[in-house]
User: Fold this.
Amino acid sequence: MPWRDIPVRAWFATLALGTLGLVAFGMELQQLFRLAPCPLCIFQRLLYIVIGLVALAAVLLPGGRLLWSAMIAALAAGGVAVAGYQTWMQAFPHLATECGYSDPNLIERLVDWLGMQSPSLFLATGFCTSREWEFLGLSMANWSLLVFAGIVGYAALLFMRKD
Assistant:
């Protein structure tokens, strides 16, 4: 198959550009439509950044393909869980405890700390149950769930690749 002829570095570079590009796109949407990201949105942004950085490390050290692929798959699986939870919160807001109304959990504390360090990138000002932006009937959390699931599959293909 022709895709097997593409070097592993190119696959990781594509993933890095894709995830970091998604962060840039999300931040542009935030500015353009004056969206207020919630703590779960910011945590997903952080996961995309970390996945992108791990993929960049894999470009520099492609010999650890199995390790990098497993790390990316684990991070993306965490993204699936977070985006899935936010999708549930948006579908059933009357059943969900809104972010910020109870004692902050680990994610909320991390996001608060990051927001103090770099407000333009990590400041959370919105509510997790709001669907401020939709495209083709799906909220940003829905799209993020699909993208994270795609990254899990992408990482699995990189893991199973025979060089």
Notes: The chain has a mean pLDDT of 84. The chain is about 70% helix and 0% strand. The radius of gyration is 17 Å. Residues 2-160 form a domain with the Bromodomain-like fold (CATH 1.20.1550.10).
